[in-house]
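This section describes the prediction task in plain terms. A model, or a person checking by hand, is given the sequence of a single protein chain and must write out its three-dimensional structure as a string of tokens. No templates, partner chains or ligands are provided. The sample shown here is typical of the held-out split.
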Amino acid sequence: MSEKGEGNFPKTRWTLIARAKDPDATISRRALDELCTQYYYPLYCYIRRRGFGHHDAEDALQEFLGKLLRLRAFEAMDDRRGRLRSFLGTAVRRFLVNWHRDHRHREDELSLDLVPPGEDPERRFRGERFIDSDTPERIFDRKWGHALLASVLSRLGKNYAARGRLAVFDVLRPVIVAGGSLQSGDSARLAGTLGMSEGALRAALFRLLGEYRDILRDEVLHTVDSAAEVEEEISHLLAVFRSD
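The expected answer:
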């Protein structure tokens, strides 16, 4: 039996997919909006790296996401389909095989603008510094990981703000992003910024890291088939970052 989580979304394996299949249109649309917001740019980068120009990439991605919004990709799915990252990567690759051939003959069935608010994928893509060994799959995994960590940090910041501890989060956030270790001289400087002793600062960082890890595992759990796959997925994404 699934639990009810934040926003009354069912907390099940492959939670995003479970939400997208929910008969409640409000829940399903919010879940799909969340999916588009978090994974639009990783998918865009994948398509661009496959040789598509900006306009074709946006057209193809809009159509691909449109199919998800119509739930055609999810209707026959159950929760035993592995990782959401792998599923979306495979699905978009298969979709692109026929897109060039078919798109000129296809009428636009969906007039929705699926670009997340504030997103400018072309501007972001122009600022990327890819190298020859950066395959579409590797770039997709890297951007997937960046989107995942951004979501974790957003949740963590909201939690600290709700507890009146946002200043602590804001000061220690760069430490988390840099790997979680205080560098030489950081302790005294950051402690002074917060009006803490260095010991209190280290204790605060320890608590922040613990909550960060818990939220990271929770976020990953929503995109894999089982709890046993969480650590493997995290290890995979960390390996992708280390290879940058």
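For orientation: The chain has two domains: 1-128, 132-244.
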